Amino acid sequence: MAAISITRPEPAPLLDELMASEEEKSIQSQSDVDGDTRMEDSHTTTVTRSHKIKTIVTPGEVITDDPQWMRGHGTYVSPEDHSIIATVAGTVQKTNKLLSVRPFRARYTPEIGDLVVGRIAEVQTKRWRVDVAAPLLASLPLSSINLPGGILRKRTTTDELQIRTFFSEGDLLVAEVQSIHQDGSASLHTRSLKYGKLRNGVFLSVSGTGGGGGVVRSRRQVWTMNTAHGGGEVDVVLGVNGYIWIAKHASHENHHTSVSITRLEETMSNSIYSSQNGVIDPSTRREMARITGCITALVEHGVRVDEDMVMRAYDASLEMSFEGNQEAGGEEGSDYLGGERGRRLVELALGAMKE
Question: How far apart, in whole angstroms, are the C-alpha atoms of residue 314 and residue 310?
Answer without folding.
Answer: 6
